């Protein structure tokens, strides 16, 4: 089948049938499927790594950046972590069937809100092959069927990972179409998914800015996403110098290509060693671009342009501004942030609590690296992504974020009359 719309419609019909079956499965059956899938990932490690090596070689030949190659590359430790993440999801409390709240109406009608699966979820992602395993595990455990469309740069890796997961699901008796991989890298398939209103219930993009922007612009299906990870760390005058250095270096340089990486460093003009903190970041291999006050503190510092404050670098580059205390930091974040993850380093608890309350981001941290913006680090198991909107789900989206709810009423013959 070569027509993209027909292909997605066929996948959607099969997914809908699988979703109906998954919605009725007990927790133990879904968990057994995930445990079997994790075992299959471990058993297929050599094949997965061989497929990934092919993707990495092709990506390098096409000129992918170092950060993008890092997102793409797998090794034995990452495959093991992928399998462990799937098992972690299997061990999480099942949200399906959870009673959110109950009430009794004056007429005796008993009402309750109960969590139920969303249905068919389409995942569109680019160069991270681990998303194939994470997305399949989370969707299935939450009782949803998944249609997965990975990027062309990870096509071989995605196929190997999906093949292992599918064999594990089948061995445990889960529906064969519980998680389907779109069998083409043609961009028309993405467009067909975005237009598949009534076939796909929710689209979740996970990847770079251009991918997410396209999804948000074209989708006729509801979308759960974040566009940018323009994350800030504000170092208050009360911050411990050693702690500030450790957090800033980790937040920027641990992995520069992840959406939780710090992109802008804000330093209170009252912080005693702002120059030393900026120099430490630069000495660690980061290109630092500063505002006028930062340049005055560190001779030879590159000048930041207006665009730098609104840029997600995903690379060893950071913008630095010296601000007038907490209010200056909050104002800067409000003007330039993307509502993803922002952090404060401070010993003054009063200042920290004001920051936590005032910054309108999905994740706000005190004395911790922004690289903790991750579902696994939040105890949620593997995540489907970070959501920065204000509806349905926000922050790391895991099992609960992949459910909706319905109202159930239990009566004794009530009529409105």
Topology (elements, then pairings):
Elements lengths: L3 H20 L3 H17 L1 H17 L4 H7 L3 H15 L8 E6 L5 E8 L2 E6 L4 H12 L3 E5 L5 H17 L7 E3 L5 H8 L7 E5 L2 H10 L12 E5 L5 H13 L8 E7 L5 H10 L3 E4 L1 H6 L4 E2 L13 E7 L1 H12 L4 E5 L3 H10 L4 E4 L18 E3 L7 E3 L5 E8 L7
Helix pairs in contact: 1-8, 2-5, 2-7, 3-7, 5-6, 6-7
- Beta-strand share of residues: 15-25%
The CATH class designation of the largest domain is: Alpha Beta
Provide the structure class.
alpha/beta
Basic shape: globular
**How would a crystallographer describe the biggest sheet?**
7 strands, parallel
Distance between the termini: 55 Å
What is the number of helical segments per DSSP (H or I, 4+ residues)?
A: 14
The count of β-strands is 16
CATH topology of the largest domain: Aldehyde Dehydrogenase, Chain A, domain 1
Quote the average pLDDT.
95
User: Radius of gyration, rounded?
Assistant: 23 Å
Characteristics:
42% helix; 417 residues; Aldehyde Dehydrogenase, Chain A, domain 2; 4-stranded parallel sheet; single chain
Structural notes for this entry:
The protein has 417 residues and is an alpha/beta fold. It folds into two domains: 4-226 and 389-410, 3-Layer(aba) Sandwich (Aldehyde Dehydrogenase, Chain A, domain 1), CATH 3.40.605; 231-372, Aldehyde Dehydrogenase, Chain A, domain 2, CATH 3.40.309. It is built from 14 helices and 16 strands. The protein has helices spanning 4-23, 27-43, 45-61, 66-72, 76-90, 130-141, 155-171, 187-194, 209-218, 241-253, 274-283, 292-297, 325-336, 349-358; strands at residues 99-104, 110-117, 120-125, 145-149, 179-181, 202-206, 231-235, 262-268, 287-290, 302-303, 317-323, 341-345, 363-366, 385-387, 395-397, 403-410. The strands form four sheets. The chain has a seven-stranded parallel β-sheet with strand order 10-9-11-8-7-12-13, sandwiched between helices. Helix 7 (155-171) links the parallel strand 4 (145-149) and strand 5. The model has no long low-confidence stretch (mean pLDDT 95).
